[in-house]
Automatic annotation (TrEMBL):
Its EC number is 1.-.-.-. This is Flavin-containing monooxygenase. It comes from Alosa alosa (allis shad). Belongs to the FMO family. It is an enzyme of class 1 (oxidoreductase). The keyword ATP-binding does not apply.
Length: 411
């Protein structure tokens, strides 16, 4: 990052974004919105990050399998100023997520800021997961990162995750340390929804395949050691974004968080805040206050979630979004909204917490936000409609008359 020092502090001018996944794209867009020059380095030859499906998993990159469908519905996972197409399904297939990212990049003309096949530094995939007894296990075992499809699992007994494999496997066991929430994507009437708990301590002897869906290791090898300090299991970052020890706020980690819903709105909100901090429009507190906040947040996370080395980043979606929105000055003000626009106020208060709400006021206000909120249910309902067929023109040629004969039996 390059910048300059003025009377009121340090201001960035040119910001480097590492990676052109959904978080990186949000960063480029938000930095440009704030008048910063954004330069993105992407090690692969395309945008999309995780959502660009790779037939062969690439070391150092997360991957998905063929049939992945997003858990969050499209309206809840949207960028706040770019509603997804109405005819996209509510829970998108990964190819449609990529399509949505492409539409976003095209609409805001982001591609010209990205340098493809440019790796900031070498990224290594750590494969140090361990599992007691696995060395003596005779069947096939692998991490979910390598899982592309259920091929080869036909008729097998499968242990651990891979719900996708349940379509073809004879039996799939889900093994977890602390129990697990099984969240259905579809609720009543086919609407997007969340549901039910499953936990079972039973022992299973005969297993053919084990899939380790035990989470991912993370690493930032290109960062200096002192910025990789941890608090609990997570990186020591103020509000999950800023390292507290920097003299100037010149680094932000965006999208490194796991909300109980979609990442895009969270990452985008973080990018909006980072752009204002870099620009010098918003100040971060002192190092000691940031450290205190980090420790308090870590403690609360450990009380609320089953945090571990592999699951260090869990946050509550709306409170975290609100928290960062508050810093940016974008948090919806219900009272003034009701006074100004009661119809909109009602929709915001009683409707789903879609990301467009965070564009109604404040510095990143978007004129289309009201319309996006008014039309959100139309976009949810549209995929339920039957396919539109071309209208059939009535035939013009003369038809021979049809005679109906009623034969009534007489007794
Ligand atoms: C199987 C799976 C399913 C998921 N499902 C969901 C879901 O349903 N909903 C949801 O919200 N989230 C889901 N997630 C979380 C997911 O990680 C995020 O949605 C999202 O992909 C994170 O985006 P990102 O841009 O931060 O990272 P990524 O998508 O991983 O993109 C990072 C980019 O940075 C590039 N890069 C990395 N290092 C360098 C470097 N040194 N130099 C240059 N470029 C570099 C990579 O090539 C990549 O393009 C899922 C994750 C997994 C693994």
């Amino acid at each position: 990052m390059t910048g300059f020092l003025s009377n009121d502090g340090w201001h960035a001018k040119r910001v480097v974004v590492i990676g052109a996944g959904c978080s990186g794209l949000a960063c480029i867009k938000c930095f440009l919105d704030e008048g910063l020059e954004a330069v993105c380095f992407e090690s692969s030859d395309d945008i999309g990050g995780l959502w660009r499906f790779k037939e062969r998993p690439e070391p150092g990159r997360a991957n998905i399998y063929h049939s992945v469908i997003v858990n969050s519905s499209k309206e809840m996972m949207a960028y706040s100023d770019f509603p997804p197409p109405a005819d996209f399904p509510n829970n998108m297939h990964h190819s449609q997520v990529l399509q949505y990212l492409r539409l976003y990049a095209k609409h805001f003309d982001l591609l010209k800021h990205i340098h493809f096949q440019t790796t900031v530094c070498s990224v290594r995939q750590r494969s140090d997961f361990s599992y007691s007894g696995i060395s003596t296990f005779q069947g096939r075992h692998f991490h979910s990162w390598e899982y592309c499809s259920a091929d080869g699992m036909q008729g097998k007994t499968v242990m651990v995750i891979a719900v996708d494999a349940s379509r073809v496997a004879k039996q799939v066991y889900l093994s977890t340390r602390h129990g697990a929430w099984m969240v259905g994507r579809i609720g009543e009437g086919g609407m997007p929804a969340d549901v039910i708990l499953y936990s079972d301590p039973s022992v299973v002897d005969e297993v053919d395949v084990v899939v380790f869906a035990t989470g991912y290791n993370y690493d930032f090898p290109f960062l200096p050691e002192d910025l990789r300090v941890k608090d609990g299991y997570r990186l020591s970052l103020y509000k999950h974004i800023f390292p507290p020890s920097l003299e100037k706020p010149s680094l932000a980690v965006v999208g490194f968080i796991h909300g109980l819903r979609a990442i895009i709105p969270l990452a985008e909100m973080q990018a909006r805040w980072a752009s204002r901090v870099f620009k010098g429009l918003t100040k971060l507190p002192s190092e000691s206050i940031m450290l205190e906040d980090i420790q308090g947040t870590t403690k609360r996370m450990h009380q609320r979630f089953a945090c571990s080395e592999r699951n260090p980043l869990q946050v509550d979606y709306i409170p975290d979004l609100d928290d960062v929105a508050h810093e940016v000055g974008e948090k919806p003000q219900f009272f003034s909204l009701f006074l100004r626009d009661p119809g909109l106020g009602l929709r915001v208060l009683f409707g789903p917490c879609t990301p467009y709400q965070y564009r109604l006021c404040g510095p990143g206000q978007w004129a289309g936000a009201r319309q996006a909120i008014y039309t959100q249910w139309e976009r949810v309902i549209r995929p339920f409609g039957t396919r539109k067929l071309p209208e059939i023109q009535p035939e013009t040629k003369q038809r021979s008359p049809v005679y109906l004969t009623f034969a009534s039996g007489q007794t």
